[in-house]
User: What shape does this take?
Amino acid sequence: MNTFRILAASAAVAAALSAGAQQVSQPQLKIDSANRTLTIAATGSVTAEPNVAILHIGFETLPASAKAAYAEGARTSNAIINALKQAGVPAAAIHSQMQYLARDYSEPKSHKFKLVQQWTVRTTPERAAELLDVAVTAGANSSGEIEWTVKDPRTLEDQALAKAAARARANAAELAREMGVQLGALLYVSNQMSAPIYARPLMARAFSASAGAEPPPLAIEPQKVTRSASIYAVYAIQ
Assistant: This one.
């Protein structure tokens, strides 16, 4: 299939997409001599290098009285944020995810509490390991998850959808040819985007200064960003 045909196939699918995408289930078609159809499903994927890293940074205090846990949590919280800002992270790139003071149930008869806080920090892939190290050194003892993404994920999604649409049309045309029939008009189409999957590394733990020389930052390799789209299409055949 040449480039012109691929573009034409993508345009045909896009024209019917607004109506078909609203339906969540496949159409119930009546099979009879007046309704000759061909059904096809296809998937398209696009992969790119990440240009954004979203770090998940957090900590939890040791069990203590509510007042002591809150005081220790406040000290640690401010130490982590100050360390990140001193490392050049703008305030707009740091967002609170959650924070709470709760009973510690590791010992059923204990009346101690712990304070938990989590943030996301948006940065470049090149600085991910460095900033994770900065946070852990400052007391972020429950950190490590990284989401690798791109500044404009919609572009990747559109490219994946175009690939799936072109593949659906090409597969339909080939199947029609092999079955000895002529492919007709597009009757129905629906699409579905796959949700991105993020790796969840082991949570980093703060090291003790008495353990010796400070280790270097973790060796972290960015993961490629992939978006996939699936097309379900029904064509008339002659």
Observations:
- Residues 1-27, 201-211 have pLDDT under 50 and may be disordered.
- The longest helix spans residues 153-179.
- The domain at 3-49+152-195+227-237 is CATH 3.30.110.170 (Translation Initiation Factor IF3).
- The radius of gyration is 26 Å.
